[in-house]
Structure formats: structure tokens, C-alpha cells
Design brief:
91 residues, mainly alpha, 2 domains
């Protein structure tokens, strides 16, 4: 399921996902968001249905975020891959 939500098509495609510092930074941000959500819960705070892309139910929200990643970011992902494959002078 995580592979599907992140847009990974195969395990080979995702096998090196954690090898770059930029990927580590993304993971760090995701963990921080988890802690933020927990703090909100502890303080009785929450987002409500209709706040941005928030919908009713955990599974439905995971699907919304997954859809955003798969569909909404498709063009951005393609551009990033194109830019990564460009030849750049050595530093």
C-alpha cells in the first residue's frame, strides 16, 4: 500500500528511496508531521472535513493524499526526473 501511495510501481523502483540525503529530509518531515498530529490530538485540536482536502475518515484521507501524490504531482515528478537526468558540470 505504501508503494502505491508514494507512486512506486515496483520494489526495484523504490529500493533506493532512502539512499539520498534529500530523501532522508523528506522522511524527517513526514515524521515531524506525525508528531505534530499527535500533539494536536493531545491538545484536543483537529482539522475538520472541508479544511483543504480533508474528508471524513482516516482511510478516505489517506486515499486523498495518495491521489494528490499520484495524479496531482505527476507532471511535477516527470519534470524532476527530467532535471535529474540533465548533464550538469562537476563542482
Amino acid at each position: 500500500m505504501i508503494a502505491e501511495q508514494t507512486g512506486c510501481q515496483t520494489t526495484e523502483h523504490c529500493s533506493n528511496i532512502f539512499t539520498k540525503p534529500s530523501c532522508a529530509a523528506k522522511i524527517s518531515q513526514a515524521v515531524e508531521a506525525g508528531f505534530f498530529g499527535y500533539q494536536m490530538y493531545k491538545n484536543g485540536q483537529q482539522f475538520y472535513v472541508g479544511d483543504g482536502i480533508v474528508v471524513k475518515g482516516v482511510d478516505a484521507n489517506v486515499e486523498m493524499v495518495g491521489r494528490l501524490g499520484r495524479q496531482g504531482m505527476k507532471e511535477t515528478n516527470n519534470k524532476i526526473v527530467d532535471m535529474m537526468l540533465e548533464k550538469h558540470p562537476a563542482h
